[in-house]
Amino acid sequence: MMRGGWLRAYALLYLVFLFAPILLLPLFAFNDASVIAFPLTGFTTHWFQELWTTEALHQALRNSLVIAVLNSLIATLLGVCAARATSGPAFPGKRGILGFIMLPLVLPEIVIAVSLLVVVRQVLDLQLSNVTVILAHVVISLPFSIAILNGAFANLDPAFEEAAQDLGETRWGAFRLVTLPLVFPGIISSLLICFIISLDDFVLAQFLTGANPTLPVYIYGLTRFVKSLPVIMALGTLLVALSITLLVIAEYFRRRGVARAGLKDSGGFL
Amino acid sequence: MSIFDRSPQARTAALLSPPFLYSLLLLALPLVAIVLISFWTQTGLDFDTTFTLANYRAIFTQPQYILGNAQNWGVIPVSLFVSATVTAITVVLAYPVAYFVSFVVDPSRKSLWLFLITIPFWSSYLIRVFLWKVILGFNGVINTGLQALGVIREPLEFLLYNLASVIITMAHAYAVFAILPIYVALEKIDRSLLEASQDLGESRFSTFLRVTLPLSVPGIVGAVLIVFIPTIGDYVTPQLMLGAGGRLVANTIQTQFFKGNDAPLGAALSIVTMLMVGIISLVFLFLNRRWLRGRS
Amino acid sequence: MNVQSKPPATPLIQLRGIHKHYGDYHALRGIDLEIRQGEFFSLLGPSGCGKTTLLRTIAGFEQPSSGQLVIDGKDMSGVPPNHRPTNMVFQSYAIFPHLTVAENVGFGLRRDPRPKEQRARAVAEALEMVGLGGYGNRAAHALSGGQRQRVALARALILKPKVLLLDEPLSALDKKLRENMQVELIRLQRNVGITFILVTHDQEEALVMSDRIAVMFEGAIGQMADPETLYRRPNSRRVAEFIGKMNLLPAEVGMEGNRIVVEVAGLGRGAVEPDQAPGGVIEGNSTVGIRPETLSLLFPGETTDRRVAEGVVDEVVYYGDMTYYDVRIPGVEEPLTISMKNLIGRPVLDVGTPTKVAWDERSLVVLSR
Ligand SMILES: Nc1ncnc2c1ncn2[C@@H]1O[C@H](COP(=O)(O)OP(=O)(O)OP(=O)(O)O)[C@@H](O)[C@H]1O
Ligand SMILES: [Mg+2]
């Protein structure tokens, strides 16, 4: 029995629209023509081999990975603080502060980029480097981290930690033995999502990167050259595959967290 | 006083202070700085810090920013138009999908659907924009594909290097932002209300119009704002899709900070743009509230 | 004054002048309390009166704004919950969902120096004690409400606390299960001999289970007594109305020599003993209470040597074993509620039937406040 036949057809079509571009990636990444056009001409792994031998690309990738890892650690640590404060007792100004931290969700990225650039250069008088990129990435990752971790912390009965203390644990022991295991899946999700955000970000990196470009900045440089299009396709294939893998892992942990707390699953991220 | 004696409120406040300080330093301070700088003047690599309204005067008097001339609109109105169009398209296209997931999909499979919908959002934005360029281009996937199928002889030129291509690309990129708030609002609707409405003699369609749709308005409002506001700041899409020619305000801002080397003007442009977006959003919220009140 | 058995020289728990402020809100207003070793003590009161706050103050989760708390001879100020000889059964039970039943019960034994096998045996015994023998390996989140409650009990009792604190432990259970658990809790408390402090807003539960009850209103204790005294001799209107059904009648109270004389509206004049005015006597306009089951209707043909008032049946509510009659008596605004056992051969009267109400002076309580 097909329920909502037309709606279902429309929704499937919409999914096709959402996925169409990224489904084209592998198609042309393995196509042996140097222009991106139909019809496909033949199978090759040449473009991937070219990735393997491009030193500048490796440099950019290393850069991006370092930035992404540090970003996800810092953002998640701050996110844990904020999410725990969110579920804790209210004090004057708490809602305002939290709202302010979440502001980057609705700020155009270019405004964040431009204003950070001004501060880094004019006020703090720092050289642009990977550090400045990390600082910026934490600003935009933090709201996502908090949103994910809020879900994890909000599921907790405040009595859990009190019960642990009542049974002889210190405040820290209660956090470590009860809260941490219960929100751990959320922490993993947050780490992964912040990692992806950093790895994918182009705008902030373009403004704030130093002498060494990040991977997206490097890719952007490539897009100006027609002959490097197939290489971008190959690189894009790998990046999207990586994102999806991380995402699947993040989703797995999120669901496990929900199951662990003995709750009903009520939807995805955000 | 030991930590133990502190009240739970004080502990929460202490916990919140690291993220708060971070945001203060790297979000509030930058936003303040950009406001300040917009009243300054660029002199070579430095700033003349005497207060001036010259940047704002330029924005409100020179044709390329707001006023426009006989041939072209100003860059801000064009950008607002593009964002508004993207928003309208995205939200209208997204609503049925959100409705489908909330009302038709079996509860056990909802999170799978949501997961599928969010996947494209988490793959590199730059790559996705670039893909649309490849898809819509003169020798792109659509043209060569249609030619290979014999549907068309000559490439369709209207696909790339115009606002339509920007709008299509953005509508794709921000789809998730529209679906999720609407979905959340639909999920909150008490299903017994719909049964009550049908029990009272409404058809399924009129139930949708009279119950479901009004109750999902908060989700629609959320979707509108969360698409409209960020799209105005997107400069990657126009840059890749429009080439060197027509530009949107985000590109103009970006240029001021790089090639143009006039950071104060760029700052003033950012602020004017943000203010306009803010005002439009507030007016939208206000009208919406009036409309909701008028109904009840 | 209250009929109250004297506490021994050093009570297990002493609260002296405990106040608690939340900002402007005065949640506890000078609580004085002494609880004996081995006592089953209940805190009873309407929602928001501060029962949970008081319990959490004893457990150490709230710091009193002023006043002193002594447990087992030690002042508890500055002592964190993990160092207090108290354990708690939380209203939500707070069973850790990521642990098994046995891990939950053994949670507090982490610092126990005994070898592992002995601790495992202690866990098994504790589960046995609450009737969950063999459930140790179950996942905690797969338990029913009643089972959770047992796990919470075992988890707290395994640490052999001086005091077990229970915050509305039965309110999440359905009526049948609740009544079973009441009996089980009483039995458990007698077996282990540990002092129990139970918070409840259910007066029946408090009456059934407790050795003594403190009735709280708005952050202060209204009356503290054993269940029978509380029921028969409430010291104020509030307590009288909170516990069971009580007919309240306007009355004129006066002293004639040593005797307390009351002129009760509708019933007439009578004399009462001092214990019938537990809240003290204030001469003049006052209120007198009388329980429905201490009144009876005279059915046709019956006679009595008790005091009698004439009235008309106003409302009849049939409960199976009992029938509740509202009887209108000239001179009283509110009808009197009377409960009658449905004995064999006793008819149920119709509304509008003229009838007689029998009552006794010893059943009256003077409620000045
Ligand atoms: N952390 C807090 N901050 C501010 N006010 C509080 C706090 N905790 C409790 N209160 C207030 O103190 C009063 C007493 O609360 P408490 O939880 O002790 O009531 P209770 O008697 O247990 O009620 P219930 O039967 O509803 O559980 C309530 O009015 C409550 O709003
Ligand atoms: Mg309570």
TrEMBL record, chain B:
InterPro entries, per database record: MetI-like, MetI-like_sf
Keywords: Cell membrane, Membrane, Transmembrane, Transmembrane helix, Transport
Chief location bin: membrane
Protein family per UniProt: Belongs to the binding-protein-dependent transport system permease family. CysTW subfamily.
Lineage: Bacteria, Pseudomonadati, Pseudomonadota, Alphaproteobacteria, Rhodobacterales
Example of a GO biological process term: transmembrane transport
Recorded topology in the membrane: Multi-pass membrane protein
Subcellular location: Cell membrane
Species per Swiss-Prot/TrEMBL record: Rubellimicrobium mesophilum DSM 19309
One Gene Ontology CC term in the entry: plasma membrane
Keyword Magnesium applies: no
ABC transmembrane type-1 domain segment(s): 76-284
Keyword Transport recorded: yes
Protein name, as recorded: Spermidine Putrescine ABC transporter permease component PotB
Membrane spanning stretches: 20-40, 80-105, 112-138, 158-186, 207-232, 265-287
From TrEMBL, chain C:
Keywords: ATP-binding, Nucleotide-binding, Transport
Highest taxon above the source species: Bacteria
Boundaries of every ABC transporter domain copy: 13-243
Pfam families associated with the record: ABC_tran, TOBE_2
SUPFAM superfamilies (UniProt xref): MOP-like, P-loop containing nucleoside triphosphate hydrolases
GO CC field: ATP-binding cassette (ABC) transporter complex
SMART domains per UniProt: AAA
GO MF term set: ATP binding; ATP hydrolysis activity; transmembrane transporter activity
Single GO biological process annotation from the record: putrescine transport
PANTHER family: SPERMIDINE/PUTRESCINE IMPORT ATP-BINDING PROTEIN POTA, SPERMIDINE_PUTRESCINE IMPORT ATP-BINDING PROTEIN POTA
Protein name according to UniProt: Putrescine transport ATP-binding protein PotA
Organism per entry: Rubellimicrobium mesophilum DSM 19309
